[in-house]
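Exercise 7. Given the encoded structure of a 314-residue chain, write a plausible sequence.
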């Protein structure tokens, strides 16, 4: 029977149970009909899967559910995600095509990220605020707009350069505050252009330092109230793992929408140099926030907290 794949874990990884009050049985996967999760084991590895006769059309609901399952798995140990909508024809295919080719490499990768989680920080500022702050301390703040078209174009470029310079300096200050709390960090998007974000960054953080990182982000918000700060996590540390090239193929997974954990390989692992980002659809929608309130309420620029994905307390 076909199975939907969610992530790769150690062979002794426990299956997440359903949320209290959600009924009996184990965590339910995606597909039609939806079925409980189980582990397909091979040597030191296991794949979290759920059987289904039809994965169906993949949308926001399925992306959120996929991310929820990964978060529940992450609560009990390291997990390496598989692309949303990846389907194997049966358990044997999972063992022979997914797990066996990486038995010598993925256990070491799982060990390397054990106890570590990924956090996303996305920061924007209203355009009018950026413009006003960028020119406030320059003569341009008091200069009348030129009449000549070429002069207006040059003025616009000067202002754009000032905005980018201010944005870059502000981002560097924020990174200087947060980097001491992280094991590693990396950009999630391109920076340095007028259309680029103020900051879009991923941090690899020890799980036991999440409260410290939360507090540091709150200090960033308090010190810079004009910024809109989206803070998401904990997530599997997929942006900080070098996936084995030997498992990659040229074929994309079938029935995928692209709004998933990225990757060029058939099973969803990225190639060399490829940035592997978590499903934007799932992150923007919010995967079952702890408090039960809409995720967007906690990702607001002022006064929000981390959009926590069902983190199990030790």
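Solution.
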């Amino acid at each position: 029977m076909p199975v939907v794949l969610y992530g790769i874990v150690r062979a002794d990884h426990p299956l997440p149970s359903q949320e209290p009050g959600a009924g009996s049985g184990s965590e339910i996967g995606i597909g039609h009909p939806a079925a409980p999760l189980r582990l397909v084991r091979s040597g030191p590895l296991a794949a979290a899967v759920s059987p289904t006769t039809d994965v169906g059309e993949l949308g926001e609901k399925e992306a959120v559910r996929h991310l929820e399952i990964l978060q529940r798995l992450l609560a009990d140990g390291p997990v390496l995600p598989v692309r949303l909508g990846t389907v194997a024809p049966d358990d044997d295919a999972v063992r022979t095509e997914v797990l066996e080719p990486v038995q010598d490499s993925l256990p070491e990768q799982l060990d390397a990220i054990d106890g570590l989680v990924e956090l996303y920080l996305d920061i924007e500022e209203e355009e009018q605020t950026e413009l006003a702050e960028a020119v406030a301390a320059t003569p341009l703040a008091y200069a009348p707009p030129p009449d000549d078209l070429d002069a207006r174009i040059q003025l616009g470029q000067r202002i754009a350069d000032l905005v980018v310079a201010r944005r870059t300096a502000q981002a560097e200050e924020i990174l200087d505050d947060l980097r001491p709390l992280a094991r590693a960090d990396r950009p999630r998007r391109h920076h340095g252009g007028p259309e680029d974000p103020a900051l879009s960054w991923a941090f690899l953080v020890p799980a036991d330092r999440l409260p410290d990182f939360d507090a540091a982000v709150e200090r960033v918000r308090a010190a810079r109230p004009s910024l809109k700060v989206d803070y998401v996590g904990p997530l599997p540390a997929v942006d900080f793992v070098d996936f084995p090239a030997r498992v990659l193929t040229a074929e994309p997974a079938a029935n995928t929408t692209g709004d998933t954990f990225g990757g060029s390989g058939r099973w969803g692992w990225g190639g060399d140099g490829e940035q592997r980002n978590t499903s934007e659809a799932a992150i923007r929608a919010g995967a079952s926030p702890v408090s039960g309130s809409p995720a967007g309420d906690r990702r607001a620029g002022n006064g929000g907290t981390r959009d926590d994905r069902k983190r199990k307390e030790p």
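Remark. The first helix runs from residue 60 to 74. Students should compare their own answers with the one above.
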